[in-house]
Amino acid sequence: MPVILGTSLAWIIGGAPFHVLRFILALLAMVILHSAANMLSDAFDYRRGLDRDITPVSGAVVRGWLTERQATAGAVALFVVGSAIGLVLVLSAGKTLFYVGAVGVAIGACYTLLKYRALGDLAVFLNFGLLGSLGAWIVQTGYFSWLPVIWTVPQAMLVAAILHANNWRDMVSDKERRVTTVASLLGDKGSLAYYGLLLFGSSLFIFGLIVLPRLFRWPMTPMPLTVFLIILGWPIAFRLWGRARRRHAPRHPMDFVVLDGATSQYNLVFGTLCVLALWLDYVLTRL
């Protein structure tokens, strides 16, 4: 979704022509590099004994579809392929993209080590949020801008919420194996507050981007009023919040166990509504 958002912003706000092939390659590179980071994380988590029980959101190693060695080799191969696609895009978009992409690949390759040191939330916030959108913007425009970075913060918050829900669930086992996450640092009640901040703060951040530049005449482009459409996703957000609050006495046994997967679904809805709202404003302003 960050690639789609960044590309949309480049066309709607940046006035860039839509380079279809570049968009496809950028989206493909993002998917491949994301898969590489996930596979590497699955392999390392399995090696350290963190993920051994199969759940609906378990990876291929835990399920026995791949061995730890196969997953590691596959991750390396995907990093190479994704990076190669990125280098092809650099030839057309310029060296600014190279710097952004290099940071992203480095974070992805070191993600597991960062996750064990309570930096996983920051890593996914950057890689699968801000850098993804910024990279897509640069692919289309050829230059850096803070706009796709700032406007992607709400979606990046929800990406962090997905990882936090996972780490919150595994907090006890992580502590036993001396793995430090934000969830283990905050504890159970602190994790609830943090999850709520990420879940609802994403909407509040968007409201700020819509209202504050207009109210105080800030020298920045305000988000279109159509982005208020994100309230259509609030029923899902409140259901997630209910699951989180009832984690010790869930209505259904798997409610808290799969909270990360459910949060991922909300992130998809939230991101889709944002993109649709931007295009709706684009169409309405030209009628």
Brief overview:
The chain is mainly alpha-helical and 287 residues long. The chain has 13 helices and no strands.
Structure description:
There is one protein chain. With 287 residues, the protein is mostly helical. The protein has one domain. α9 runs antiparallel to α13. The mean pLDDT is 88. The longest helix has 35 residues.
Strand share of the residues? under 5%
- Uncertain segments: none
Radius of gyration: 19 Å
Q: Percent of residues in helical segments? A: over 70%
The tally of strands reads 0
Q: What about the largest sheet? A: none
The tally of structural domains comes to 1
Number of helices: 13
C-alpha end-to-end distance:
27 Å
Q: Secondary-structure element sequence? A: HHHHHHHHHHHHH
Q: Could you tell me the mean pLDDT?
A: 88
Shape descriptor: globular
Strand and helix map with partners:
Layout: H1 2-12, H2 20-47, H3 60-63, H4 68-93, H5 95-109, H6 111-115, H7 120-141, H8 147-151, H9 153-169, H10 171-176, H11 182-216, H12 234-245, H13 259-284
Descriptors:
287 residues; mainly alpha; 13 helices; globular
